[in-house]
């Protein structure tokens, strides 16, 4: 039986030493696929003493976090999702506190959140609520209290949600083990019961977490706590299996389809013709026999029917495609019927690849190039907004339809940040694109970023304008240190110098020297930037060696003529 992430939990939340309870806690366990991609979320919040609406603040913060976290894209990392949510909650609390109570203390709360995803725990923390972990005999505090001590008897919160527009959030990730126990408590508990005593109570009620939570809270009350008391306990009862055989079995639940011939029907899709194939995939034009619409059917190549890494990446390609919504990215369609084989369906786009377009239209007009690059950039932005990096952008992977609209059609090598957090028993080495379009950092074993896609887009822009590549040689690791950018003006003198410099910046070998965002690159292609033209001056001997030596020879010849004239006169 396949193992999944599961927990057991308990909580107790009481007014304690106050007439009103301003603490809030909660746990939400995702269902279905979300359990794998988003996991389990637990929070504890404590409305700040002295806040005008501490109770409302803690409830909004805790409940808002649990609701919004599971609404963030599955492609986002846990860190990105949590930071965006907490920052938004902070702005909302701070703004409402100012409007309703005209005070920076209007709606203020602490917040500690624990996300369990795959085999990793993620902690986000602001304030003085605490998260502990009991592993074996070790009871360890995983958070730091954000308090400033005034004297022996007085201390103040130094950090809280809603107190300021700017918010620093503590973050850490930790590996999980089965039987890990996490204890989340408010300061009304941990200031009135020792860590050692909490540990003893949990051991005492090892098989009854609710009894442990009740006893911890009641002991803090017995010790005359002057605050609300909350204790939430979570035990990890199982973790996703990392057995390679089990992992491969799950991937191969559906068999590879056979080689499909025109007229054959697969799950209601009639094959019309074979479009193309490569060593990785087979692509067919098919017709949905129910709706009579034409679609593209993409199936994995039988060459990889025993390759777990390839199968996983093929599944991720469909998974990613169904989450991207852009007019400049091929749409992956839902399959309304039960599948009997491994394949996916996409929209049928009538047109030609950008490679074919370039062969038909050599050295494109600069305004056409600007339009094409802007369209491709819009498609890439749809990836980047979801924390995906395409990694395989090249003319063969872009279609130009009959209306002149460009669409990215292949994303089998896409790196998905949220999926990368999910543990798997095999190491993934993402398939990269053609060597001259793939960013140089990949060839030396470094991790890519959105700037890697900007590099590929810059190469395409250069080739559209010149019919050549910006470095003239293969971008292999052995060549990287010897490469020099070849000015576009060598091949196309009519191109403005600032356009040349914009593309040179986009295709810089060093990713730190490239544009940081796609919008910066597309803007630079359309607007003259004197700083680009005036920086990084390249001598004529490097820009155009032939012209340089012709100039030197002419100067030497002129000097010799003058010298001869002086000698004979």
Topology:
Layout: E1 6-14, E2 23-29, H1 33-37, E3 40-47, H2 54-69, H3 78-101, E4 109-117, E5 120-126, E6 130-135, E7 138-141, E8 147-151, E9 154-157, E10 170-175, E11 181-185, H4 187-190, H5 195-204, H6 209-222, E12 229-238, H7 244-251, E13 265-266, E14 269-277, E15 281-288, E16 294-300, H8 308-321, E17 332-333, E18 344-347, E19 351-353, H9 354-360, H10 366-385, E20 388-389, E21 398-401, E22 406-408, E23 415-416, H11 417-420, H12 440-443, H13 450-466, H14 497-506, H15 518-526, H16 530-534, H17 540-543, H18 545-568
Antiparallel strand pairs: 1-12, 2-3, 3-4, 4-5, 5-10, 6-7, 6-11, 8-9, 11-12, 13-14, 14-15, 15-16, 16-18, 17-18, 19-21, 20-23, 21-22
Short account of what is shown:
The protein contains 18 helices and 23 strands. With 569 residues, it is of the alpha+beta class.
CATH superfamily of the largest domain: Transferase(Phosphotransferase) domain 1
Helix content: 25-40%
Derived from helix and strand composition plus strand pairing, the structural class reads alpha+beta
Give the CATH architecture of the largest domain: Orthogonal Bundle
In whole angstroms, the N-to-C terminal distance is 105 Å
| CATH overall fold name of the largest domain | Transferase(Phosphotransferase), domain 1
CATH class of the largest domain: Mainly Alpha
Count of separate DSSP helical elements: 18
Report the sheet-strand fraction: 15-25%
Q: What's the story with the biggest beta sheet?
A: 6 strands, antiparallel
**Which value, in Å, is the CA radius of gyration?**
31 Å
| Total domain count | 3
pLDDT < 50 stretches: none
Q: What oligomeric state best describes the polypeptide chains here?
A: single chain
Strand order in the sheet with the most strands: 13-14-15-16-18-17
Coarse morphology? globular
Q: What is the residue-mean pLDDT, rounded to a whole number? A: 90
How many strands?
23
